[in-house]
Design brief:
- The chain is α+β, with helices and mostly antiparallel strands and about 240 residues long.
- It folds into two domains: about 5-100, no CATH class; about 110-230, Jelly Rolls, CATH 2.60.120.
- The chain is built from six helices and eight strands, in the order H-H-H-H-H-H-E-E-E-E-E-E-E-E.
- Strands 2, 4, 5, 6 and 7 form a five-stranded antiparallel β-sheet that branches. It has a three-stranded antiparallel β-sheet with strand order 1-8-3, with no helix packed on it.
- Strand 4 and strand 5 form a beta hairpin.
- It is elongated and about 100 Å long.
- Mean pLDDT is about 75; it is low at about 30-50 and about 230-235.
Amino acid sequence: MDKTKVEEKMRPNARQLAMRDPAAAALFGFNSSDDFGAEFGDDAGAEFGDELGAEFGDDYGAEFGGPPARAPNQAQLMALWNARRAKYQHARRREMLLDPNRGSAAKIEQYVFALSQDVLIGTAGVVNLDSSPDCTFRPQRLTIVVPTPGFMTISDIKMANVSVQIGPGQIDAFQFNSNGVGQRMDLPTLTPANRARISGVYTGFTGGFPVTSPPFRFTVSATFIGPASLAGGAVAM
């Protein structure tokens, strides 16, 4: 008989290779198919990629003439699973930086909601800051931009018709300056149907600004910061 034909006849077929280690064949589903290479490439390769080779050394079916490859034991499979899970969780945390609402029905972000009014420097007057947000909003911090203490006093802060100021005393607006600490508050949730109102008085104090003719205008700005539904979206309440 031709030597080439003898060698081909002696070469093990896919089933014989799979049956060298029935446990490994059952683990990866090799003994349910006549196409040893296709099963390994489509299933084991897709699930574990190059990690089997990296973790356990020899590739299944790579050395036909060598000893039968051993199936990974439970501890090895768990170690591989934990490594893959840790890699997935790390990637998930990185993706959340760009899309923190992924997989959530409620789309929530940190937004800014501002109220403002111009005052005439040197001329005392009433300050009424009043507006409503464009989406459902839960303010947690309030910052008011005034140049100095004594520039403006606040008599009431009202959110959705609920006064968040306890007691009749006046508050110096400078308490809420941008460098202030401990300004986190639990303020009522606002919707587009509700309004935020800050009532107070500009005292007429120049705050170091020159008095000019015509009078110099200064913008008093109050900014709320907190979580809100995405603009134009809705959130379950």
